[in-house]
Amino acid sequence: RIRVSYDALEAGKLVHHEKAFGDWYAEMVQHIVDHIAGAYV
Predict the structure, then answer these.
(1) CB 18 within 8 A of CB 4
(2) What is the DSSP letter of 39?
(3) Structure confidence at residue 3 (pLDDT)
(4) Cα dist. 7→11, 29, 40 in Å?
(5) How far apart are CA 20 and CA 13, in angstroms?
(6) Which residues contact 5 (CB under 8 A, 6 or more apart)?
(7) Among 13, 16, 31, 33, which lies 20 to 30 A Cα-Cα from 3?
(8) Domain boundaries, the chain
(9) The pLDDT of residue 41
């Protein structure tokens, strides 16, 4: 499981969001985050 939190601009205001992913989705999210951080796995 992986938990992601982020702020998004909605109607001119920052709104906090949190999402949890499991199984295949968690692996994909972690893979993308690793690439953004410069790790090629």
Answers:
(1) yes
(2) -
(3) 93
(4) 13, 17, 26
(5) 23
(6) 16, 17, 18, 19
(7) 13
(8) 2-36
(9) 64
Please give the pLDDT value at position 39.
Answer: 76
d(CA 21, CA 27): 9
For CA atoms 12, 13, 19, 24, give the dihedral sign.
positive
Confidence category of residue 10, pLDDT binned at 50, 70, 90: very high
Q: What share of the chain is helix, strand, coil (3-state, %, to 5)?
A: 35, 45, 20
Average pLDDT over residues 21-37: 92
Q: What's at 27, amino acid-wise?
A: E
